[in-house]
Amino acid sequence: MSSPLERRYRRLLRALPKWYRRDREEEMVATLLQEREHRLDRGPGLGESLAVLGLAVRTRLATTAPARAVAVGNAARGIALFGLAIYAITAIEHLAV
Prior knowledge:
It is a single chain. The protein is elongated and about 60 Å long. It contains four helices and no strands. With 97 residues, it is mainly alpha-helical.
């Protein structure tokens, strides 16, 4: 049976794509647990949580991911670029007035 801390780390790692977790989850949980071994913390800290969430975003947008994940990442980048272009055009219009 896993400890409450291990369950919290596994829950946090669910933010990562399945294809990434499949290869690395056990090693990541073991590393995170080992780092917390001598501390009395109850769960992942803010720094660890932000690092995992940042990794989740980077892996979902990575070009080395499986083809479907690359397509989703390309779509997300395209939408972000389109939104940025609209924002820039709106800002230029307001400056010109």
